[in-house]
Amino acid sequence: MLSNLRFFLIAAVLGSVVPGPAAAATETLSAGMTEERASSGLSSASGAAAPAMDFKSYQKNLDDLFYVTMSTNPDTRYGMNAAIIDLSRKQRQNPKDPEPLIALGHIYRILGQPAEANRFYRKAIKLQKDNYYLYVFSGMMYYQLKNYAPALRQIERAIQLNPNDVYAWLARGRTARESGQEEKALGSYRRAHELDPENDEAIFMLSAYELKKGRKRTALKLFEELHQKKPQNDYVRYQLGALYMMNDEPKQTLNLWEDLFYHGDRNPEFLFSLALAYFQTGKYEQAESLLEHMQFFYPREPGIQFMLGETYRVQERLDEAVRTYRALLAEYPGYMNAYTGLVMTLLQAKDVPGARKALAEAATSISNPSMLAQLENAINNNPEAIVETHEKSAA
């Protein structure tokens, strides 16, 4: 299979650039393309689909071998641009041959140009109307372009051709979710779970929907059972930790996430989430250490600065908190959370006039009457403010 796929890839992506031996090799490799179509379940005559390989494996093999082929090509003059030119020439010579179109679609997809990739996938679909893989690839490109209606149509056509491939159901779930069709998304994830009871994404999304509906224990049970089966799976541990956070169980989250951190996970989103878990469990020094580390690499990220201010505030390092909020507001004048943190810090420092001044500044920078009213109530109900009011009355 792999050798056949390599033949297919070289023929479809590289073709021939120079005359002589390379041109002769093209004929041999083109034969490999036909053989690959047959081995993957596609008819070379009609394009009728009966895929023997699931989409995820098909794409991984294709992409892996693409990179191998490009990196090991002995002709150093032959790069991506030359491949595109050569494939375009072949397509002009034989407009009814779908292979150059498919290969061009793959190249532009790998290059991160979904609109251009989809242009070729859609042309190829006209020549192979029952090619399951092409419909999934086209749907993926529409999805990346946030064009969800046609993405859903392409994915659902793929499911008609092959209703038992988990990837297509997951893609349908993602696309339906992004387009606001929650019931369709939920049904898609349920079907994916039926096809693959240990699929991480399907179980996480089903858990998230259960949690959203208030069925917390049902949501957690789904992922806890998966964690028992895959105790060393980092994705499962991270997502189960995220579900515990959503369920206000940060200690359970830390039990899972600290191990990920100690084993080298330094993804920025993970580090920020871990800092929040430390903060919620009262481990302020650990939260501060992580946030300061992240601020060094992301100095203009307001969420990190805000949480740093909060860690200083809860540790009663009030001057540092005020400086942090002020610096944040100097760069982001309309950042409501920073005003909230500043007002609460000044009240904590018993500086009621300073809190009132900060509230007045907030009123000129933001338009959120509800939040401004809450801050005003906090000031007026503060013991220091009550004393201040009584003293003015007495005078």
Tell me what the structure shows.
This protein has 395 residues and is mostly helical. Among the domains are: 1-157, Tetratricopeptide repeat domain (Serine Threonine Protein Phosphatase 5, Tetratricopeptide repeat, Alpha Horseshoe); 300-395, Alpha Horseshoe (Serine Threonine Protein Phosphatase 5, Tetratricopeptide repeat). It is 77% helix and 0% strand. The chain has 22 helices and no strands. Helix 11 runs antiparallel to helix 12, helix 13 packs antiparallel against helix 14 and helix 17 packs parallel to helix 19. The protein is elongated. The termini are far apart.
CATH topology of the domain at 1-157: Serine Threonine Protein Phosphatase 5, Tetratricopeptide repeat
Global Rg: 29 Å
Discrete helix count: 22
Following the backbone from N to C, one meets helices and strands in this order, namely HHHHHHHHHHHHHHHHHHHHHH
What amount of the residues lies in strands? under 5%
* Number of E-state strands: 0
Shape summary: elongated
Task: Determine and state the CATH class of the domain at 1-157.
Answer: Mainly Alpha
Distance between the termini: 92 Å
What is the CATH architecture descriptor of the domain at 1-157? Alpha Horseshoe
